[in-house]
Amino acid sequence: MKNRIKVFFVQETAEKEYQTESLWCKADVDNFIVDNIPFIAERISLGDTIEATIDEDDGLYYFEDFVANSGNTTVRIFIYNDYENKIEEVRSWLKERGCNSEVLLERNIIAVNIPEDVTYAPIKKYLDEGEGNIWTYEESCLEHEYYSLMNSKVIVTYYDVDEKIAEERLWIEQKSDSEYQIKNIPFFAPNLAFNDIISVEDDDGDFYFEDIIKASEHSTIQIVMFDDTKIEDVLKSLEEFGCSWEGMDGQTIIAVDVPPSVNYSDIQEYLQKMLSDNVFDYKEACFSETHQANL
Is residue 265 within a helix (H) or strand (E), and if so which, with residue range? Predict the structure, then answer.
């Protein structure tokens, strides 16, 4: 423990609340190097160099700013309750591929560090294969570029709930000289869905959304959870309907993709029930013509 201290990371969530995690850090001249893998803190990885200041009132160190990124990626895996026996198997698989991990057994969470020199593509494939079946996961600090076909992210500007201009970045796959396909589910941006074909404006290497060329006929639902104890039940229900999803902030914010083959009337009935039961609020951020015809 020599030259190691606990540094507290206090971060604001999307619900304007605060969450705190303390991480062991090694003293490095005037700065500190993060020395364990975060379970809660976002955008932080093992080996990052940070500034921290001591609070005169409580005598504790608090994160102040980043100095240098380590290049490592942090992934958190949330193992479903029926698969606790898979935890050590998953950790062993990751270790064989050069990753290290820590586990929070009481919550079935594996915090994974993927070093900069480890190829992320096979790990991403492994994570995707278990997604929705054995676990769900989030890339809380992504430093690796992992999709050879995903050339970049597109910046989508929109008005948030306070009517202020906001931005969301979505992965895109280039399909031709002028066409790109959206390859993840929007958490906040409206009127876009997984697999939509779009055009972009290239502004000195930054891609900005320009127009929809061809709608995928997928729909996008954006959910904010009110009852955290129902998260697992909600995710399982969505999967049973045939939907896929992405989560952030411990799955309290969920972006849901509804494929065109799914009957939307069943989905809408479920959404309205969850809203009336105060389980979550939701927005039909992109409502395809195919799904409108289901109603």
Answer: helix 264-276
